[in-house]
Amino acid sequence: SELIRGFLLSGMPCPSSCPPGLLALMAPGLALMATFSLPSQAGDRRTLPVEKPSGVKGRTLILLDVNTKSPVRIISENFLSLQLDPSIIHDGWLDFLSSRRLVTLARGLAPAFLRFAGKRTDFLQFHNVKNPAKSRGGPGPDYYLKNYEDDIVRSDIALDKQKGCKIAQHPDIMLELQREKAAQMHLVLLKEQFSNTYSNLTLTARSLDKLYNFADCSGLHLIFALNALRRNPNNSWNSSNALSLLKYSASKKYNISWELGNEPNNYRTLIGRSVNGSQLGKDYIQLRSLLQLIRTYSKANLYGPNIGRPRKNVIALLEGFMKVAGSTVDAVTWQHYYIDGRVSKVTDFLKTRLLDTLSDQIRKIQKVVNTYTPGKKIWLEGVGVTSSGGMNNLSDSYAAGFLWLNTLGLLANQGIDVVVRHSFLDHGHNHLVDQNFNPLP
């Protein structure tokens, strides 16, 4: 099976030296080894008889001796990485990223990248104020939110001083109130998603501090995607708000890598204004120039263009981008979702034609990248079993494990350097941790 061969021969050393997060994700594959057989390059295969109790149909145990001395590919130590959607600003979960339990779970997946991006990336506005309510001088909707946030801060009674981390043990009543708030906001977010009209999000300096604290304390490297839909009349990128965010992050000496935008091929659908690959490439060159002007980020990594599935129009956008800015980015990124989350059913997760779609997309992306920048690293950013937020009790269950295992093995075998799982917490039903902070299958 291509699935198992790619995963086991991806260049990872023996399980005893693997990071805990990877071992957890390897478990389904190791369990399947008793069923799947590998070609001769994987090592010796021996078939042993198994004693069977009376009345039980006979079975054969296959022992595999996997050769790890000659890897097919060497992948990044951050191969398995995570994503957080900016919607956590809307529904309030950002304020709970200091939870000791969340940080502990995330630490188990380190080292990894934490990509802060999603559909609402291009509606994100940064405001360098600590307290928006007080800056307006009186009560209002944000005033009550501020009091709610103050309660959260006061509950940070157990601080982990290691590396200056702020880690909290939030009272159960506060988590219950947050779940109620998130449930109400979830309806708003769903309405935005299905109407394809998104409201602006405000990221304050205080919120950015919380986001970075979570990443840093968890041993994750933050990748922040800047808003690419702030445009000048001539359709060039307006970098003023991004510059404000960069300067604030630099003043705090935050170690961050950067991106610009999310799925630029969908901009016409989102706002009725498209951005072609050539213009997007110029925007990335502009961002690279900004980073070089700020000492803290003069050598920071820049990734992009984070396109969607490589259909004909998307390939054209990628080609235009690579011609102009292929040498500007440190890795070329794209997204992949196997199934439309609104129509998926459990049998969809076992269809081999779905497994084959990813392989075809990898070839298309590699062909364009190698044409313009041979050897450039390629990442799969924003990958999930289903799109549209996923399906409850399907995309967040063991049923999705086969597609996920196939994704890991295929990407490793084909030389894709990093895969970013969407999402760590609270985005539809593709997430890894539920609202009780319990890990999902």
From TrEMBL:
InterPro entries: GH (IPR017853), Glyco_hydro_79 (IPR005199). One of its GO terms (cellular component) is extracellular space. Gene3D superfamilies: Glycosidases. Pfam families: Glyco_hydro_79n (PF03662). One of its GO terms (molecular function) is hydrolase activity, acting on glycosyl bonds. One of its GO terms (biological process) is extracellular matrix organization. Belongs to the glycosyl hydrolase 79 family. This is HPSE2 protein.
